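User: Can you help me understand a structure? I only have the sequence.
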Amino acid sequence: MNYKQYLIKKDLPIKDAMKKIDSTKPKILFVTENEKLIGALTDGDVRRYLLSGGKVDDPVEKACNKKPKRVAHSLDEAISLLDKNFIAIPILDQDGNLRDIYTGNRTKSSKKKKIDIPVVINAGGKGTRLDPFTKILPKPLIPVGDLPIIEHIMRRYEEAGCKDFHIIVNYKKELIKSYFKEIEKEYCIHWADENEPLGTGGGLSLLKNKLKDTFFFICCDSLILTDYSEIVEFHKKNKNDITMICARKKVVIPYGIVNEDKDVLTSIEEKPEFSFLTNTAMYLIEPSVLKDMKKNTRIDFPDFIKEEKEKGKKIGVYTVDEDDWLDMGQMSELEKMRIRLYGE
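Assistant: Let's start by predicting it. Here is the structure, written out as tokens:
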């Protein structure tokens, strides 16, 4: 990564900086003068400055945060400082000159480690969010570009080194099985047939005593574009029983939010931005937790996680970037996914 793409001069008009923020990932810029770091600039900094009476033609020096909370003096230090609340860490030399910017996985040059652990895919649902297409085809076979949803998912795991797939099926299961009979593949598929709908988690009870190692579990509409080996490493290092893979989402309320107390105005927030973690329906699981699964009993997996936590099991959360999660279960998202996977 060329870190200079994130640099702007202190006299750049705010309106020009706003355009550049929209075109960068992560969405942050650093204001410099003669290689010296003056401050950091995000959408939030711009919004606060404009709400205080600033103008879009003003120089960015007036709007930037002149005291970034985290800076580093080496790559190792930057790696240790980066977390879900800090999306980029500037790296300074001994003289305070900006020499690099660390943004996480995008700057790592090391090859991804290969993993070979089982993958369980819940492909038994009716896919009502993709109605009316799922009245004809089961959700796993809905195409995104040249491939059906399920094959996009499996290829991602196959690229990571996984070769052992367990697929839970119910709705239009014979169509799904027939599809895989017709294609060439280098991985192994084991089928688990639900006789009745068992929710997003209950189908795992069909795999009791069949899974001996740590395994991935994912619903057939979620594609995560990240390094799966790092998820495994995180899971093992923290000795989790279940690791949830969650995406950080940001939502801007397109209205001014008014707060009051006993009919008296207390504050006004103009188009506030909220950040939260959302469940991607991808998990890494220890086989021991399957002992608590009641056979042929309907349960959604988030509810099972709650039960396991109450029993004292360790539930970890691995956070991925919002842009690394493709929710393939919504019709409005399918074209976006096709563009993301295949380009324009």
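Now, to help you interpret it: The longest strand covers residues 273-285. The longest helix spans residues 149-160. Let me know which part you'd like to focus on.
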